[in-house]
Design goal:
By secondary structure, this protein is of the alpha+beta class. It is 41% helix and 14% strand. Strand 3 and strand 4 (122-125) form a beta hairpin.
């Protein structure tokens, strides 16, 4: 990933950048929020920190806002459990209590790779701890791939500025435990 190129194009697209995160800041964030940045996102954030256009400002955004972003995928699943009869067969019989149903969904989300917010409702999983993880667009259980990797996501999100007319992910997409079944519509629902 040519970090200078992405920063230049995003800057021309109006994205504001601050000095990249230090190794100490990265470590503090990972410890505080209990995830690990994948290497490509870590390199990008250390090179230059985007702070506008919906990007998470890992340096100055308040803890509540970051925690809310980290909980967004779980909250969306809960919304669909409560309001759209969403339930995965792999979770077994749906409990009568919505609180018990939420607890089962919570365990599934906690066991899955953590989705790290990038910008707006776009997320990258923290596992596997390799460069090249796909980026997901997450809105309730409408979870789709929004990039085969971080660079592809940035080019999709700012497609006009990268000269792209198609915002479909390009290239091979790594399968991610739990989350890929949503994006690939492989979920078996039960009512």
């Amino acid at each position: 990933m040519d970090l200078e190129h992405y920063k230049d194009v995003l800057s021309r697209a109006g994205v504001t950048f601050e000095q990249g995160l230090s190794s100490q800041e990265i470590q503090r964030i990972e410890e505080e929020y209990a995830f690990r940045f994948p290497p490509d996102l870590k390199a990008f954030l250390k090179f230059a920190l985007p702070i506008s256009h919906g990007f998470v400002n890992w340096r100055t955004d308040d803890e509540d806002s970051i925690v809310k972003s980290l909980l967004w995928p779980y909250i969306g699943i809960c919304f669909d459990i409560a309001h759209n009869s969403f339930w995965l067969k792999e979770w077994g019989e749906r409990p009568a209590s919505v609180e018990d149903a939420y607890a089962i969904a919570r365990k599934a989300v906690d066991d899955a790779p953590t989705l790290i917010p990038i910008n707006f409702h776009r997320y990258i999983p923290d596992r596997p701890r390799k460069s090249g993880n796909p980026v997901f667009s997450v809105f309730q259980t409408d979870i789709i791939y929004y990039g085969a990797n971080l660079g592809d996501h940035i080019e999709n999100e700012f497609s006009f500025h990268f000269g792209r007319s198609d915002t479909n992910p390009t290239g091979e997409i790594r399968e991610i435990e739990f989350w890929s079944q949503f994006a690939e519509n492989r979920m078996e629902h039960s009512l």
